[in-house]
Amino acid sequence: MDRELALEIVRVTESAAINSARWMGLGKKNEADAAATTAMRQMLATVHMTGTVVIGEGEMDEAPMLYIGEKLGAGGPNLVDIAVDPLEGTNILASGMWNALSVIAVGPSGTLLNAPDMYMDKIAVGPRCAGKIDIDRPLIDNLKAVAEASSKDLSEVLVAILDRPRHQEIIELIRSAGARIKLISDGDVAAALNTAFEQTGVDLLVGIGGAPEGVLSAAALKCLGGEFQGRLLPEDTSQWERCLAMGLTDPTKKLTMDDLVAGDDVIFAATGVTDGELLRGVRYAGQHRVHTHSVVMRGKTGTIRFVEAIHDARQKRFE
Ligand code: VTB
Is residue 64 domain-shared with residue 189, that is, in the same domain? Predict the structure, then answer.
């Protein structure tokens, strides 16, 4: 893939963030998501690639746009898979809380796992702890491994986990192990990203979230030299069959980073919609100026760029 693609795709998340941030706190998550999706789709049409959506806003019959299988891009020799979450954390934005992001990952055709929309058990860590964790091991062992690799006492380790009743047991486990917890209302892609940046304070992400978000998180951590492991959790026969149809002969096997994102030629971009530990949200500076804060990275070279941009809002309206 051309390296210029990285700079082209950050425009895509910037536009989606700008278009959806107008809905911050308005309690209308579907409208916010639609605004992000519309902008993302229009900008993707200008990117120099021949792309297919492998992770999107749903199947063709349930999503009007950015559906799985949708062909996107301005054409050209970059044949790519595209994974998108135009607004990761629709509820967060609707209530004006932390860590709503616009997210995209792009890899050469056939490299991104076409993860069905089901739950996935996840564990994610930053570069310090890469190679030290294993989703198959008891959680306490992973906590100890993270503490050791980070030269921290277990009581200093901070674990991010979605605040859901299904996590009650592991929350108790983490507490009794003596580690600290950051409960998040939504947005486990942001939490996975945070593990790779010390300034966020987050050491690891564990627990069950969406599988599509798992592939996006794996793409980010691949660029960052961190580690992500997952396990799909099909809940009924139709989900099980979806897995088989995707070519996963053993749907509940451990998914390594290479299973989720093959090779290292992957590009990931995220723009903050609301403020988070890593990225600031969209700011309206007055006089039609809009500020965005993004991160864009390439797995092949390991370059991580933070992009602060000032836009003219009149040029960034997507209907
Ligand atoms: C997570 C989180 C997302 O879905 O994947 C979560 O990262 C999992 O689903 O922001 P439940 O809400 O059913 O627990 C989101 O919250 C929304 O896509």
Answer: no
Instruction: Give the residues across from 268 on adjacent strands.
Output: 105, 297
Cα torsion 202, 204, 210, 214: sign? positive
Q: Is 186 in the pocket of ligand 1 (CB under 6 A)?
A: yes
Give the model's pLDDT for residue 20: 97
The enclosing domain of 29 has a CATH number of: 3.30.540.10
List Cβ neighbours of 260 (8 Å cut-off, separation of 6 or more): 112, 113, 115, 214, 215, 218, 219, 228, 230
Count of domains for the chain:
2
Q: Phi and psi dihedrals of 231, rounded to 5?
A: -145, 120
Closest approach atom of ligand 1 to CA 188: 7
170 and 254 part of one domain: yes
Q: What is the mean pLDDT of each run of 10 residues along the chain (319 residues)?
A: 93 98 97 96 96 90 88 96 97 97 98 93 98 98 98 98 98 98 97 98 98 97 98 95 88 96 97 98 97 98 97 91
Which ligand 1 atom is nearest residue 90's CA?
A: 17
Instruction: Report the CATH number at residue 133.
Output: 3.40.190.90
Are residues 253 and 128 part of one domain?
A: yes
Whether 32 and 148 map to the same domain: the answer is: no
Say what the pTM is.
Answer: 0.97
Distance 103 CA to ligand 1 centre (A): 14
Residue-number span of the structural domain to which 252 is assigned: 119-260
| Ligand 1 pocket, residue 213 CB under 6 Å | yes
Q: Does residue 142 share a domain with residue 83?
A: no
Q: How far apart are CA 72 and CA 12, in angstroms?
A: 12
* Best mutation site among 188, 195, 205, 208 for ligand 1 pocket (most ligand atoms within 8 Å of CB): 188
